[in-house]
């Protein structure tokens, strides 16, 4: 069996700035995408860039996106315009001894390509299932499935993950030597990392839900992205 293609196979997806933070293992790309919940889809619309938050889901080496068939961005993307899709996970604020070296710990995936409008009925359902299960695992079989009217109003796009890059920053600040040993060390500035976490809170039932309906395990036990 052939090994998965490495990341950064093209000029525009090769990380140059901060190259030491780049990852070339495709498993790192999948891990970032699988940990995120919302991405940002960028597309040229009428000669101007437009970037919008977008739900997504991954099936193998294909990313599925969806939205209204009336959305200009999805029509442009589905019509063959080049797109860029980004998912960023923020893991911490890095406090340094100098303002210049303040930073963040993060995991970021960037995918380039041309999205394909999914027209095959079976693949459309697959894409919507992948999207639903990524956001709310267990819901595809628990909730009512889309009807014909809802399917007609929904555009599903498929984006291949062949052209992608990943950057990850971890660890403490990278302060300059003179900030560690120079003047002011006797009264040092605090430096370190303030970790950030995305956590699920207590489920809030819909006001129209009948009394006594228990919170299902798929909601009660839901976990969100964890630090790298």
Question: Short summary of the structure?
Answer:
By secondary structure, the chain is an alpha+beta fold. Helix content is about 20%, strand content about 30%.
Secondary-structure map:
Layout: E1 22-23, H1 26-35, E2 38-45, E3 48-59, E4 62-68, H2 72-78, E5 82-95, E6 103-114, E7 116-117, H3 121-135, H4 139-142, H5 148-152, E8 154-160, E9 164-169, H6 177-181, E10 192-195, H7 217-220
Antiparallel strand pairs: 1-9, 2-3, 2-5, 3-4, 4-8, 5-6, 5-10, 6-9, 7-8
Protein traits:
22% helix; globular; 228 residues; 7 helices; alpha+beta
Your description of this structure?
- The chain is of the alpha+beta class.
- It contains seven helices and ten strands.
- It has helices at 26-35, 72-78, 121-135, 139-142, 148-152, 177-181, 217-220; strands at 22-23, 38-45, 48-59, 62-68, 82-95, 103-114, 116-117, 154-160, 164-169, 192-195.
- The longest helix is centred in the middle third of the chain and has 15 residues, at 121-135.
- The radius of gyration is 21 Å and the shape is globular.
Structural class: alpha+beta
Radius of gyration: 21 Å
- How confident is the prediction overall: mean pLDDT? 91
Compute the number of strand runs.
10
User: Could you describe the largest sheet, including whether it forms a barrel?
Assistant: 10 strands, antiparallel
- Give the helix proportion (percent range): 10-25%
**What percentage of amino acids are in beta strands?**
25-35%
Q: Choose one word for the global shape.
A: globular
The low-confidence runs, each spanning 5 or more residues with pLDDT under 50, are none
Number of distinct helices: 7
């Amino acid at each position: 069996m052939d090994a998965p293609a490495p990341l950064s196979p093209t000029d525009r997806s090769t990380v140059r700035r901060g190259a030491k933070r780049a990852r070339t293992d495709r498993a790192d790309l999948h891990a970032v995408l699988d940990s995120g919940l919302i991405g940002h889809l960028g597309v040229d619309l009428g000669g101007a860039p437009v970037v919008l938050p977008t739900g997504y889901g991954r099936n193998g080496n294909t990313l599925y996106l969806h939205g209204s068939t009336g959305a200009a961005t999805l029509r442009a993307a589905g019509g063959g315009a080049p797109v860029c899709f980004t998912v960023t996970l923020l893991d911490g604020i890095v406090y340094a001894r100098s303002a210049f070296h303040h930073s963040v710990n993060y995991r970021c995936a960037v995918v380039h390509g041309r999205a394909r409008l999914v027209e095959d009925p079976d693949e459309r359902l697959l894409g919507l299932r992948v999207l639903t299960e990524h956001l709310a695992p267990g819901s595809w079989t628990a909730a009512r499935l889309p009807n014909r009217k809802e399917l007609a109003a929904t555009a599903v796009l498929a984006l291949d993950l062949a052209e992608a890059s990943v950057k990850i920053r971890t660890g403490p600040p990278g302060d300059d030597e003179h900030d560690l040993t120079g003047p002011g060390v006797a009264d040092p500035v605090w430096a370190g990392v303030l970790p950030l976490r995305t956590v699920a809170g207590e489920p809030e039932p819909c006001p129209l839900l009948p009394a006594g309906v228990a919170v299902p395990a798929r909601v009660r036990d839901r976990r969100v992205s964890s630090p790298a």
